[in-house]
Structure formats: structure tokens, C-alpha cells
Amino acid sequence: MTREELHALVDARYDEFQALQEQPNFMAYEEKFAHIMTDLGKDMLQSSVGPIPVNARKKTVHKPDSEK
Tag placement on the chain: N or C end, fewer CB within 10 Å? Predict the structure, then answer.
């Protein structure tokens, strides 16, 4: 993940963070904040790991480097 990709993910959530100021009490603020951060963390993880394969059960061939 590049710095620009991270900034794009955070920028997409900016309006949600600004809407937190309108919450009537701290408990509602904290619940919304936790939800936004959980979603942001999920998006960051998915972006850094890469796309989901079409068939998750497909085996991949792994050949370790041979030591001499």
C-alpha cells in the first residue's frame, strides 16, 4: 500500500469523522468512532493484502529455495 492509497482511504472517511461532532453525547460519539475505525482498518488490511482469489480453496505451489 502506498502513501497515496492510504490517504485516499482516509479521505473517503473524512465526512464521517466530521459528522461525529454532531453526536449528542460522548457514548454515541465513541460508538460511531469505533465503527468508522473498524471499517477503515478493514479497508486498509484488504488493500495491503491484495485482491481475494476467485477460488480460495485452490492450492498454491510453494517451492522453497534449495540450500547448497
Answer: C
C-alpha gyration radius of the chain: 19
Full DSSP string of 1-68:
--HHHHHHHHHHTHHHHHHGGG-SSHHHHHHHHHHHHHHHHHHHHHHHH-PPPS-TT------PPPP-
List the chain domain ranges.
Answer: 1-8+24-49
Distance of CA 50 to the CA centre of its chain: 11
Mean pLDDT of the chain: 85
Confidence of residue 48 (pLDDT cuts 50, 70, 90): confident
